[in-house]
Amino acid sequence: MIAKVPSTAVRTQLAPTGVLRAAINLSNFLLVVEREPSPRGPSPRLAQAVAEALGVPLQLVLFETPSEVAEAAKDNVWDVANIGNEPQRAEHIDFTSAYVEIAATYLVRKGSKLKTATDVDCPGNRVAVKKGSAYGLWLENNMSTAELVALPGSDDEVFAAFAGQHFDALAGLRPGLLKQQLKLSGSKITEGHFTAVQQAVGLRKGRPEALEWLQNFVEDAKRDGLIESWIQSYGLQGKLSVAPLESLCQRSL
């Protein structure tokens, strides 16, 4: 992929210290497939590609959860961040279009009458979700009748709460729920999905030239097959999908 040469303004806005500080959410096991000795996966690869296009060194700034990444936007500790694009995060962060999508759905217990993702949002159902997750934020905005309970902790801790307490469904990313399903005999994944989490590149507000350049970079990476090549190289086919290209009318807005 041949990226558009960044202007001085773009370099200054994206790497004001001369180094691109890229925030990485370690909890997304699809985007960070290995943590040690250094993070590997599509998210770090994208950060490296951006740094190379800018012609600056890369520093990965590591966070355990996406909510920590978003909260740190006010602290000037990162320049770009690879996290889900959700309205609650847009107060302090501008986002490019998505570079990958991950389907989000539900895990239900053995014998549950809930068969599809659309069955879950009904009166009387209690739904567990990881606090601060992109799909959890989506449910906060869109779930209308079921009771949504946002739980702190890791994916395993949230699953343990779901398994040990009275919940009708556990919301999560489909690949992660497939792993959790193995731990709960007879449990099932609902058919369909309630949303596809849009993983994008974010940067702090007030950097219009940098946002435009990053937006074009992400679209070119999708169009030229770079994102798909990372999905294949890490064996993530069927788990991650390249996000659709933006239409010409969307890009002109």
UniProtKB/TrEMBL annotation:
Transmembrane segments: none
Protein's organism: Phaeodactylum tricornutum (strain CCAP 1055/1)
Entry keyword Transcription: no
A Pfam family the protein falls into: SBP_bac_3
Keywords for this protein: Signal
Superkingdom, natural source: Eukaryota
Family matches, as Gene3D superfamilies: Periplasmic binding protein-like II (3.40.190.10)
Every Solute-binding protein family 3/N-terminal domain range: 19-234
Full protein name: Solute-binding protein family 3/N-terminal domain-containing protein
